[in-house]
Write a structure and sequence with these properties.
Blueprint (H helix, E strand, L loop, with lengths): L2 E5 L2 E4 L4 E8 L7 E7 L6 E7 L5 E3 L7 E6 L4 E6 L8 E8 L6 E2 L3 E6 L1
Length: 117
């Protein structure tokens, strides 16, 4: 069974930085896509970024391009989201997710990120 556990959320001032981590277990993830999503209060969950585990290819939502960086450490089975130049509108619960194909099949429990103005 795949397990995903996020950490690293918190409260930060606008313009600051945070790094989120997602520890993955239960599978060999070489065939997986791994992603970050977020959900702000009263809004739908939205895509933030994804990485292909074996190739390291990445993709980002337009709203975070140039500010956020997704990466993974194969040896630690951990994915990261480095978030710089944070804005109040980045405030949300951030979730990591995993899939092989199609829909995102596995989700973490989420970690709160709050950016104060």
């Amino acid at each position: 069974q795949v397990q995903l556990v996020e950490s690293g959320g918190g409260l930060v001032q606008a313009g600051g930085s945070l790094r989120l981590s997602c520890a993955a277990s239960g599978r060999t993830f070489s065939r997986y896509y791994m992603g970050w999503f977020r959900q702000a209060p009263g809004k739908e969950r939205e895509f933030v970024a994804q990485i292909t585990w074996n190739t390291g290819n990445t993709a980002y939502a337009d709203s975070v391009k140039g500010r956020f960086t997704i990466s993974r450490d194969n040896a630690k089975n951990t994915m990261y989201l480095q978030m710089n130049s944070l804005k109040p509108e980045d405030t949300a619960v951030y979730y990591c997710a995993a899939k092989i194909v199609g829909n995102w099949s596995y989700w973490g429990q989420g970690t709160q990120v709050t950016v104060s103005s």
